[in-house]
Amino acid sequence: MFQVFCIFIPILAALFMPFFFKKVRSIHTGWFVLIVPVFLVTFYATYVPIIVDGDSVISELDWIPSLGISFVSYLDGLSLLFSILISGIGALVVLYSIFYLNRTKEQLHNFYIYLLMFMSAMLGVVQSDNTITLYLFWELTSISSFLLIGYWYNRDKSRFGALKSMMITVAGGMLMLGGFVLLSIMGDTFSIRELISQAPELATNDLFLVALVLILLGAFTKSAQFPFYIWLPDAMEAPTPVSAYLHSATMVKAGIYLVARFTPIFAQSEVWIWLVAGIGLLTLFWGSFFAVKQTDLKGILAFSTVSQLGLIMSLLGVGAISYHVNGAEDTVFKYAAFAAIFHLINHATFKGSLFMIAGIVDHETGTRDIRKLGGLMGLMPISFTIALIGSFSMAGLPPFNGFLSKEMFFKAILSITQFDLFNFSTWSILFPIIAWIASVFTFIYSFYFVFRTFTGKLKVDQLPKKPHEAPMGMLISPLILAALVITIFFIPNLVADTFVKPAVMAIQPYLYSSPEEVNIHITAWHGIHSPELWMTVGVIILGLLMFLCLSKWQKMYNAFPAKLTLNHLYDFIIYDLCDQWIGRFSALYMTGSIRRYLSFMLSSMAIIVIGTLFIKDGFKISFEEASTIHVYQIILIIVLVIGTITTVFAKSRITSIVALGAVGYTVSLFFVVFNAPDLALTQLVIETISVALFLLAFYHLPKLKKEEERTRFRFSRAFVSVAVGAMVTLVALSAHSQKFIPSIAEYYKETVYSLAGGGNIVNVILVDYRGFDTLFEITVLGIAGMAIYGMIKLRLSRKEKNYENK
Amino acid sequence: MEIVMAFVCGFLFMAAIYLILSKSLLRIIIGTGLLSHGAHLLILTMGSFKGSAPPVLSDGVTDYVDPLPQALILTAIVISFGVTAFFLVLAYRAYQEIKTDDMTLMKGSEDNE
């Protein structure tokens, strides 16, 4: 129970932050926040011994038990690893933000509320075993990320970036929800563990592929994979602690987590393997290629994040092949999943520290533009050292942890060439080549990042501030991360035994029954004959050469047409398509003309009714039921028709009113003819009052003008009225000719005297059998009377209203 | 007779719709008047004209017409009268305030868009 509760601790703590911010002004609010992630990381650390043994812990809190939806905290190797990353890096980021954000100038309570909300959401995503609550927390990460990116909401770019990330990640989240719903329909459960246990049956379902693609779309949008990566560079408008936390270490890895978590279900499908590995590799290449083009420090890091996420994603894809192979050769694919998790840890450490350094540079010099920076090495030695460690690790150089995971990456990608399932034999040669080229670019941008900032000529006159070393407090967090970068290189197997192996077991449960069976040993030295060593050597040599002559070939980026970018496509969809084109489209039919709306409504009504009548073969005419026609009825009909025609074509007000009156009186004569004395009476009286009212009101209205309208509208008007008239006639004829149920009138006729004690059946129906109708018809009259009185008496003129508003 | 009345009702509806689709508020209200006449006659027609005596009990008569549609129409007449009266005053007030009865000109002023 407490385990589930821990997910909500940050969000509950967030409730108190405004209080601390307002009441305890002398202490930075961040210190109070820091307690939360520090507590959480210690709490989750206590689970490590359980997880190392391959066990898992589950804790449940009912939410909507009747629908099978509950908050479940399920901690196995994978979710514990993520939980520790989230709370651990969260603690470092909060510590860093205490020195980064000014206590007096910033709205700190907002910042920490959003951050704590995000922390809860992220813990919920990785621990949820229930797909519905997983989706709930997933969207909460999108929302809190939106709020954090738009933290400086008075800046245009922040708002743009926030909206963009929201649009893309929420669209993906929605699709993912669709996938979850399909999965729950197939497996009849929301529990991921139960779904995994019925994975073989799920694969035979028709909906399987649809669910697969939808869930992948959710993962790709969140993890900034191609072509959805475009929100991540724009999200760099957020404060740097946010970029370090959300956009390098945690939120963007939610998609990675999702892919890893659902691998046991979907790995059986070759579509999954192709998509995850292929898109991952494409993203890896694309991100690393365009990172070199960036001039903003955080821009470089954003594209590098995109690229590294692609790397992890492609490794997960390759790892999924292990489902299809048995025996000796499967070890290499086990290796891929292992490498993915290992690199995920490494990336969180070095990318977090690099973002923090970018923030420090921004903080101390006032700019992040790499063209203005340079020669900061002497002024900021500690930052330089940290940046060097981070960059070298990112480039994959020894003795840093990036080297180990890059080597493992090469090894896993090379192994794919030996595999001939799903046509991999023909295309697979592309995988190591693309991966190798991407690594060269990774090397280049890593060097570009660190050396353009810290070496070269110092351009003090171009910098807004006089640069100097950051305060020690700000350096603590990146120092810890940089220390981890080196430590992991020297004790990789300890990290692997503690975190990676249980996580791999969670990703590939079909291969192992305990983490000890993941018998992979990380070594920094693979022997002189291993191909991955020579690949690394090649990366270093070519990378160095290309970095040294960067200014010669960097211009080629300008050759890319600006109109053909994905950002341009996004702007086109959001601003042109949604804003303008759809606006223009609705302006086409929302003209504000009542006549037009009425024409649309009436003609569609006529078309639907007449259409249904004939499609369902409902039209029938029968003369059997009809009564005989008398001469006086014919005369009445003729009078009625003449009166109607006069009403329609009358040129003066008086004529039309009188003609309408004539029609009304003829109708009351009809009532006489058809044996309805009460109706005739009422109709006569009402018609008289109506005509008087008409005359009274029309006396104040302008004279009738000749209708001047375009012939086209005149035609459509005639058409609509004929159609409606035809509809009424056809329906009346069919209804009259097919009566299936006899009237209930007999009952009234028989009991009108015995039960109600009356002779006039119509009146007894009105006040006795169906008295409610009469009550409310009286109400209608009353309301109409009051409304008329109000309209005439209450005259709040326009001038008075304007006066009041002022 | 019912067959003929079906055509008469259709004709009334047609004329009413034609008027309702016109520009002047005045013609539209007249159109609604015609529409309610058409509807009332339609209800009566659908109740069938069988029976030769009005639905008032009298000795020796068994052949009454159906009383239920008549009760319905009576209610409908009163309601449509109330609504028409309201419409008329509304049109009158609208003309007083905005000095037009042309529907194409009644599109809201600029400050409420």
TrEMBL record, chain A:
Subcellular localization(s) per the UniProt record: Cell membrane; Membrane
InterPro entries: CPA3_Na-H_Antiporter_A, MrpA/MnhA1/PhaAB, MrpA_C/MbhD, MrpA_C/MbhE, ND/Mrp_TM, Nuo/plastoQ_OxRdtase_6_NuoJ, Proton_antipo_N
Membrane-protein topology: Multi-pass membrane protein
Residues of the NADH-Ubiquinone oxidoreductase (complex I) chain 5 N-terminal domain: 64-112
Gene3D superfamilies: NADH-ubiquinone/plastoquinone oxidoreductase chain 6, subunit NuoJ
Residue ranges annotated for the MrpA C-terminal/MbhE domain, each copy included: 716-793
Domain MrpA C-terminal/MbhD residue range list: 639-703
Domain NADH:quinone oxidoreductase/Mrp antiporter transmembrane: 128-426
Coiled-coil ranges per UniProt: none
Keyword terms, alphabetized: Antiport, Cell membrane, Hydrogen ion transport, Ion transport, Membrane, Sodium, Sodium transport, Transmembrane, Transmembrane helix, Transport
Full protein name: Na+/H+ antiporter subunit A
Naturally occurring in which organism (per UniProt): Ureibacillus galli
Organism phylogeny: Bacteria, Bacillati, Bacillota, Bacilli, Bacillales
Automatic annotation (TrEMBL), chain B:
Source species, domain of life: Bacteria
Record flagged with keyword Ion transport: no
Gene3D superfamilies cross-referenced by the UniProt entry: 1.10.287.3510
Protein's membrane topology: Multi-pass membrane protein
Pfam families attached to this UniProt entry: Oxidored_q2
Signal peptide: none
Compartments (UniProt record): Cell membrane
Membrane-spanning intervals of the chain: 5-21, 28-49, 69-92
InterPro entries xref list: CPA3_antiporter_subunitC, NUOK/Mnh_C1-like
Keywords: Cell membrane, Membrane, Transmembrane, Transmembrane helix
UniProt record similarity statement: Belongs to the CPA3 antiporters (TC 2.A.63) subunit C family.
PANTHER family referenced in this protein's UniProt entry, alphabetically: ANTIPORTER SUBUNIT MNHC2-RELATED
The protein's name: Na(+)/H(+) antiporter subunit C
Lineage: Bacteria, Bacillati, Bacillota, Bacilli, Bacillales
